[in-house]
């Protein structure tokens, strides 16, 4: 999955571009739909307080227009940011940052969970900060996760942390004005695997569940998933590189020093748990499957495009709704994703999660 690039999963300069509604754009082959977003000029003032080990930041945002912004049709003027919130207590790594659009207290808002990449080895919750403001402008709350990396704990502990974070967020949904029926996950590379893991497993009991992390009786399912250049099955990575024939001979997944092998704790070729990384294999057992938006470059020499193709085929085989975008000529974490994929990904999440709001009768707060 992770051959040589040190940049994947790091913070990128994402820019929200104009509305995209095309089939072929800037070398991108698209299957699915893209939507538009609304924005407004704002002035911002931020204050922060530290309580214990967590920092709470409150950001006041005053809109210069009276036009309602966002899918709920409720005007928002202030956002709140909570930093370093603990969702479990086993490790100091088990924290999240939560950014909230202001609500009038009568309607809950959707939540997008951002999961950073970094080869399961590095990165933190700030890596995807560029997405937060555009999502808040659409009246979507954002949770950015930290989780235990391979230097601290091997597979599947990081995945168990991510599941625990979703459960914590859902358990505290009423407290923060979140719609518990409208959770989405968005990840890149390693984060894409983790986001897809949430979607494919749903509420099935798997090795990715650790009841000791808390809220074991709360759902860890999500209703929408975005994965950019994500791995989906460690055992097929090397063969897909051979079949594609577009990349030099970098370190392959089966090498004991590969990032996949380091996360597993031994070579992909010999690890008894390697087959359990095949995420499509879980989808058939999920009671309800989310919708997916997958984007992958066809010149990716870190995670082969075959990983997303394999995932899309496996998900569709069990009836999942999947949009799969192949970005022509793009490598791993390629800047072209900034140009062509930010806005469609946000539009996809907003559309999918607004439907969740409607289906749950707007999840009126009590």
UniProtKB/TrEMBL annotation:
SUPFAM superfamilies, A to Z: alpha/beta-Hydrolases
UniProt keyword Ribosomal protein present: no
One Pfam family this sequence matches: BD-FAE
UniProt domain BD-FAE-like: residue ranges: 96-313
UniProt-annotated stretches for the region Disordered: 48-72
GO MF: hydrolase activity
Keywords: Hydrolase
InterPro entries: AB_hydrolase_fold, BD-FAE-like_dom, GDXG_lipolytic_enzyme, Lipase_GDXG_HIS_AS
Keyword presence, Lyase: no
Family stated for the protein in its record: Belongs to the 'GDXG' lipolytic enzyme family.
Full protein name: Unannotated protein
Organism expressing this protein natively: freshwater metagenome
């Amino acid at each position: 999955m992770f051959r040589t690039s040190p940049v994947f999963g790091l913070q990128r300069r994402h820019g929200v571009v104009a509305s995209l509604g095309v089939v072929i754009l800037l070398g991108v082959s698209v299957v699915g739909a893209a939507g538009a977003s609304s924005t407004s000029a704002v002035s911002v003032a931020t204050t922060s307080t530290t309580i214990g080990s967590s920092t709470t930041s409150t950001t006041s945002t005053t809109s210069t227009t009276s036009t309602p912004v966002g899918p709920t049709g409720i005007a928002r003027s202030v956002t709140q940011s909570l930093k370093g919130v603990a969702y479990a207590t086993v490790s100091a790594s088990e924290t999240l940052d939560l950014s909230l659009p202001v609500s009038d207290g009568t309607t809950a808002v959707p939540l997008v969970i951002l999961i950073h990449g970094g080869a399961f080895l590095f990165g933190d919750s700030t890596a995807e900060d560029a997405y937060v403001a555009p999502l808040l402008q659409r009246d979507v709350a954002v949770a950015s996760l930290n989780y235990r990396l391979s230097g601290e704990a091997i597979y599947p502990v990081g995945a168990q942390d991510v599941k625990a974070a979703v459960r914590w967020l859902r358990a505290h949904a009423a407290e923060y004005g979140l719609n518990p029926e409208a959770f989405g996950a968005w990840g890149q590379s390693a984060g894409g695997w983790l986001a897809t893991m949430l979607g494919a497993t749903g509420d099935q009991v798997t090795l990715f569940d650790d009841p000791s992390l808390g809220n074991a009786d709360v759902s860890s399912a999500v209703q929408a998933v975005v994965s950019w250049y994500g791995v989906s099955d460690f055992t097929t990575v090397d063969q897909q590189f051979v079949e594609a024939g577009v990349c030099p001979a970098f370190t392959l997944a089966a090498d004991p020093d590969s990032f996949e092998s380091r996360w597993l704790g031994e070579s992909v070729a010999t690890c008894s748990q390697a087959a359990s990384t095949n995420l499509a294999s879980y989808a058939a057992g999920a009671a309800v499957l989310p919708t997916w938006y997958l984007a992958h470059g066809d010149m990716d020499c870190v995670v082969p495009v075959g990983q997303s193709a394999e995932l899309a085929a496996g998900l569709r085989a069990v009836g999942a709704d999947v949009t799969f975008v192949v970005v022509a000529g793009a490598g791993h974490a390629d800047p072209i994703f900034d140009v062509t994929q930010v806005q469609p990904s946000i539009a996809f999440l907003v559309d999918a999660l607004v439907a969740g709001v409607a289906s749950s009768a707007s999840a009126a707060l009590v």
